[in-house]
Structure formats: C-alpha cells, structure tokens
Amino acid sequence: MDIHPIDPEKRQAVLAALEQIERQHDVRVLMACESGSRGWGFSSPDSDYDARFIYVHRQPWYLSVNERTGPGEAQRDVIELPIDDELDISGWDLRKALRLVSKSNPTLSEWLRSPIHYRGDPQAIAELQSAVQQFHSPLGSWWHYFNMATANHRGYLKGERVRTKKYLYVLRPLLACQWIEDDPSPPPMAFEDLLDRLLPNGSVRNAIDQLLETKRRSAEVADGPRIAAISDYIDAELARRTHSTPTLTAGHGDAAALDALFRSMLEAHAPG
C-alpha cells in the first residue's frame, strides 16, 4: 500500500497552479512539496492536498522604497490560493523562508524533507537544506513539537470518546521530541520513519498500526472510543516531559552568512 498517495490528476492540478502563480506574480518557484497528512503518511482517501512552496521575485521587488506590488497593494511575502475541498496551495517568499531558517523553524525544515516533492531546483533545495542544518536548534525544535503535542492532546483527546485521528497529531510530534532527545538532528517528516526507529514493536505499536490501517482505508475518521494502549502511552510520555524537560543545545548561525546566501540565491534563482 502506498502510504504517500498522490493522485496523478491532483499532481497535475498542483503543477498547473504553480505555473499560473509564476505567471501571475512574476516569481519563480524554487521548490514545492506536500506538507500535510499525505506527506506524513497517514492520509485518508478523502484527505485534501496541502501543497507548500518557496518562491523568489525579481531583484527589484526587494528594493522598492515603499514595499508595494501595485497601486494601494501592500507588499506580501506569502502567496495563497483560495482553498477548495481538495487543494490547499500556499507558499513563502525566499526572504521570509530564510528569516524562518534563522529561527530554526521546524515547519520549513519539514518542507525540505518531505517525501513528496512536486517540483524543485536541486541547487536551491541543497542551499536551503544546508542553511537549515547550520541554524538547526534542537532545543527550539523540541519545544515546537512538545507544544504541538500538548495542544492537540488538550483539545481532542480528553474523555472516553475522542477525535480518533487526532491520536496521530499527538503521536507524531511526541515521537519527534523523542527523536531529538536521542539524536539532535531534525526528525523525519514521515511518521512511519519515526515509528520504525522509536516504536519498532510492542502493544503500543500494534495499536498504532491498527489505527493507521483504519485511517488510510476509511473516510476521515470522526470520534470514537478511547484507545487505552495509545492514550496511556501518550499520557505517560507527556507527563514525563512536563516534569523533566531535556537538556538540549540552542541553535546558532552566522547572520552575515545568511545575508550572503540570500544575495547569491537571488542572483542565481530569480526570474530571468
């Protein structure tokens, strides 16, 4: 079973949308990937597509005194298409992306490591990946994932009936925390990779595998009875981390080098 399914027609729809964005906004798309449940590996047949991209303008766009893209139109560093029932397509400008690199933003790091890429410039992707590695903060990433797990647990997994699919939205960041504790490198985006390394077997893994099978083969799973093995595991892991946070290093990077990277990428990759 393909755990990262992309319908060929939807792939073509995303690629056509990216080409239209390039023409309409006079930008160049440097990379585009899948960022949601299809990239994580636990989508349902009716899950939507969450395409994310990084783009760059022509050089003069970054040099305008009043930061305008048109009469009365404020300059923006994101491009978002209207969301429909199947496609959710949005992207970040290169300068915004590099600002987030400097803050060790885990979301951007995940985009670059997504198992599903729609298109991309290999040189630009390699440059961004190198920058992400230089600025990676194990401490900042750990708190990002821990807060995500805590918020989803508090919002969806209390009581005897729960939003069943939200188990996965707690487990993935919780296992990402464990990954960082064991190995300070950025955790993989694919949920299966986290499971195989951190929960290779046992009763909890068996319960998760059953949940994954249900999620992947059924329409979006709504609420259901509490799954004791998974709930008990989550409760214990969250409680342990709440009372004893790990000692991790903060990120650091050369801001001047990031400025130099932005200028070199702008020269190399901006629309001709």
What would you say this structure looks like, in words?
The strands form three sheets. The chain has a five-stranded mixed beta sheet with strand order 5-6-2-1-7, sandwiched between helices. A two-stranded antiparallel sheet has the order 3-4. Strands 8-9 form a two-stranded antiparallel ribbon. It is globular. The relative contact order is 0.15. The N and C termini lie far apart (42 Å). 52% of the residues lie in helices and 15% in strands. The chain is built from eleven helices and nine strands. The chain has two domains: 145 residues, Beta Polymerase, domain 2 (2-Layer Sandwich); 106 residues. A hairpin with a 6-residue loop joins strand 5 and strand 6. By secondary structure, the chain is an alpha+beta fold.
Topology:
Elements: H1 8-25, E1 27-34, H2 37-40, E2 49-57, E3 68-70, E4 73-74, E5 78-80, E6 87-93, H3 94-102, H4 106-112, E7 117-120, H5 122-135, H6 138-156, E8 161-163, H7 166-182, H8 191-198, H9 203-217, E9 223-225, H10 228-243, H11 255-269
Parallel strand pairs: 2-6
Antiparallel strand pairs: 1-2, 1-7, 3-4, 5-6, 8-9
